[in-house]
Write a structure and sequence with these properties.
- The strands form 4 sheets. A 10-stranded mixed β-sheet has the order 2-1-3-12-11-4-5-10-8-9, sandwiched between helices. Strands 17-16-18-15-19-20 form a 6-stranded antiparallel β-sheet, covered by helices on one side.
- The chain is α/β, with parallel strands linked by helices.
- The protein folds into 3 domains: about 210 residues, Isopropylmalate Dehydrogenase; about 130 residues, Isopropylmalate Dehydrogenase, CATH 3.40.718.10; about 110 residues, Alpha-Beta Plaits, CATH 3.30.70.1570.
- The N and C termini lie far apart (about 70 Å).
- The chain is about 30% helix and about 25% strand.
- Bound molecules: nicotinamide-adenine-dinucleotide.
- Nicotinamide-adenine-dinucleotide (NAD) binds next to loops.
Length: about 475
C-alpha cells in the first residue's frame, strides 16, 4: 500500500467547513494518498483571547506535516486581532504566492476565452512589512523594504515554475521609473536571473501599463512576477477579468512549508446554506496534490471538475440559464465531480500533470556577494516644523551646524524647497535637511556617526524637532540614496 502523505487541514469559518467537507470527500473518492490532521484556527480561537488566531498545537502540526490545506477564516473586526494569513506567511517563510488565473468561458462569463496566466507574487516584503510611523500632526509614512535575497528567491521561483510547468514567458512588473532603488533592485535582479533561463522569454513592464494590459489583453500573459503590493492588486484584477473569483485557488510556498487555500473569504452571508461554490478550495487542493507529487490524482480531479462545468452543473454564483443545466448546492456539486472522476472534458483542453516532474520547487537565491565598501557620507534629518519656518529661515538656523558636513538641500515630500526653489506654496510642516560631506557627489568623504550625533544635539539645542534620520552611504563609491528632485 502507498504511504500516505500527512497534511494539516483547517476547516475555517463561515462557508469554510462546507467547502472543506466537499473537498475532502472529493480527495477521498479520488484516492488521494493523504493522511489529514485536523487543526482549529480562526474565529473561535481569536474569540477565546488568542489574538493570533492559531494555537500552539496547530503550529506543531503544520511544522511537522509542512503542508496546510486551509479554508477561509473570519478575522473579527477591531480588538487588535492579527491577520492569520500574514502571521503564517511571515512565521513559515511562505515567500511565494502563486495564483493561477484561468477563464472558463463560455461556462463562466468572461470577455476572454483564453486566459491562462499565473501570478507569482512576493509574499514577505515591500510595504507589507507593516512598519508605519506618524511623524507630525499631519504626516504619516510607511516603509517599503526590498531585499536582494527576497528578489532573487521570488524571481528564481517564477522562472523555475515556468520551466517545470512548460510556460513560455515570464513578465516582470515594477515601478522602477519612480522607485529607482527598491523597484529598481527588483528589475535588476530580474534581468540577472532571466539571463540564466535562455529557454524562457522575458519582458519587463511598468506596473501601471502592465495592469491595464491584464484588464484589456490578459491572453498575452503567461507567468507574471511582481512585488507584494502590486501582486495583491493585479491578482484580483486578473481573477475578476477571468470571471472566476469564486473558482480560483492559491498556493503560499516556502522552502519548508506550503499552504493552499481558495482566494475568496469566509462569505458569512451564505454560510450554513449549502450554496457556496467549493471550486476555489478544490483548485487549491489540486495545487497541493501537484506540490506533494501526486500529479495523477491532480489530473484526475481537474478533468472531472472541468467536465462537471461543461455539463452545466453549476452552483448559484456561476449559474446562467444560457450555459447551465442544473443549479446545485455545495454537496451536490462535489458529488457531481466525484461521479465524473475518470472522464475527460471535451470543450476545454484536458489537464495533464506529468508524473515525477512536479516535486516542490525550492529557491534560496544566489550566494551572498562579496561585501562592498560601505562609507557613511552624510545624513538626511527630517523635521517636524510646526511653526512653518520658511526654508530660508531654516537654512539660516542649521547651515552652520553640520561640522564636517554641509547643508546641501532642504526638501519637502521629495521636492527641493532650498536653495533656489521656485515652488510657490511649499509644504513646510515636514521637511528633510540633507547634510553631506561634500557638495560634489564625486568628492564625498567619510564622516562618523559622532558627527551625526553632534549635529542632532545642536539641532535639539536650538529647539528643532528632529523626527527621523536616514544615514547616507556610498557602496563601492556608488550612491546608496536617491538625489532629491532638483538637487
Ligand atoms: P468574501 O470573499 O468572503 O465574500 C465576497 C462575496 O463573494 C460575498 O457576497 C460572498 O457570498 C461571495 N462568495 C465568496 N466565496 C464564495 C463561494 N465560494 N461561493 C459563492 N459565493 C462566494 O469576502 P468578504 O465578504 O470581504 O470577507 C468575509 C470574511 O472573510 C472577512 O472576515 C474576511 O476577513 C475574511 N477573508 C478571509 C480570507 C482568508 O482566510 N484567506 C480571505 C479574504 C477574506
Amino acid at each position: 500500500m502507498a504511504i500516505k502523505t500527512p497534511i494539516t487541514v483547517a476547516y475555517g469559518d463561515g462557508i469554510g467547513p462546507e467547502i472543506m467537507q466537499a473537498t475532502m470527500k472529493l480527495l477521498d473518492a479520488a484516492q488521494a494518498q493523504v493522511a489529514p490532521e485536523i487543526i482549529e484556527v480562526g474565529e473561535k480561537i481569536y474569540l477565546s483571547g488568542n489574538t493570533t488566531g492559531i494555537p500552539d498545537k496547530a503550529w506543531e502540526s503544520i511544522k511537522r506535516t509542512k503542508v496546510l490545506l486551509k479554508s477561509p477564516i473570519t478575522t473579527p473586526q477591531g480588538g487588535g486581532y492579527k491577520s492569520l494569513n500574514v502571521t503564517m506567511r511571515k512565521t513559515l517563510g511562505l515567500f511565494a504566492n502563486v495564483r493561477p488565473c484561468v477563464s472558463y468561458a463560455p461556462f463562466v462569463s468572461s470577455n476572454f476565452s483564453n486566459i491562462d496566466l499565473v501570478i507569482v507574487r512576493e509574499n514577505e516584503e515591500d510595504l507589507y512589512s507593516g512598519i508605519e510611523h506618524r511623524g507630525t500632526e499631519e504626516v504619516y509614512q510607511c516603509l517599503k523594504i526590498v531585499t536582494r535575497p527576497g528578489c532573487e528567491r521570488i524571481i528564481q521561483y517564477a522562472f523555475e515554475y515556468a520551466r517545470k510547468f512548460n510556460r513560455k514567458k515570464v513578465t516582470c512588473l515594477s515601478k522602477d521609473n519612480i522607485m529607482k532603488m527598491t523597484d529598481g533592485l527588483f528589475h535588476r535582479v530580474f534581468n540577472e536571473i532571466a539571463a540564466q533561463y535562455p529557454d524562457i522569454q522575458n519582458e519587463h513592464l511598468i506596473v501601471d501599463i502592465g495592469t491595464a494590459l491584464i484588464a484589456s489583453n490578459p491572453e498575452r500573459f503567461d507567468v507574471i512576477v511582481t512585488l507584494n503590493l502590486y501582486g495583491d492588486i493585479i491578482s484580483d484584477v486578473a481573477a475578476q477579468v477571468a470571471g472566476s473569483v469564486g473558482l480560483a485557488g492559491s498556493a503560499n510556498i516556502g522552502n519548508q512549508v506550503a499552504m493552499f487555500e481558495a482566494i475568496h473569504g469566509s462569505a458569512p452571508d451564505i454560510a450554513g446554506k449549502d450554496i457556496a461554490n467549493p471550486s476555489g478550495l478544490m483548485h487549491a487542493a489540486i495545487q497541493m496534490l501537484v506540490h506533494i507529487n501526486q500529479p495523477e490524482i491532480a489530473t484526475l480531479i481537474e478533468n472531472a471538475w472541468l467536465k462537471t462545468l461543461e455539463d452545466g452543473i453549476h452552483t448559484g454564483d456561476i449559474y446562467s440559464p444560457e450555459h447551465s443545466k442544473k443549479k446545485v448546492g455545495t454537496r451536490e456539486f462535489a458529488d457531481a465531480v466525484i461521479a465524473r472522476l475518470g472522464q475527460l472534458p471535451s470543450h476545454f483542453k484536458a489537464a495533464h500533470y506529468k508524473p515525477g516532474a512536479y516535486a516542490k520547487i525550492e529557491c534560496y537565491g544566489a550566494q551572498p556577494k562579496a561585501e562592498s565598501r560601505k562609507e557613511l557620507v552624510g545624513v538626511d534629518v527630517f523635521l517636524d516644523n510646526p511653526q512653518d519656518l520658511t526654508a530660508q529661515e531654516l537654512s539660516g538656523k542649521i547651515a552652520g551646524l553640520g561640522g564636517p558636513m554641509s547643508l546641501i538641500v532642504i526638501t519637502s515630500r521629495g521636492l527641493k524647497i532650498w536653495p533656489d526653489s521656485s515652488i510657490e506654496t511649499p509644504y513646510l510642516r515636514h521637511c528633510c535637511c540633507r547634510f553631506q560631506s561634500s557638495r560634489d557627489i564625486k568628492q564625498l568623504q567619510a564622516v562618523s556617526h559622532s558627527d551625526i550625533i553632534n549635529l542632532l544635539a545642536r539641532m535639539n539645542e536650538i529647539g528643532l524637532d528632529t523626527i527621523k534620520t536616514e544615514n547616507l552611504y556610498t557602496f563601492d563609491g556608488e550612491l546608496g540614496y536617491t538625489l532629491a528632485q532638483g538637487q
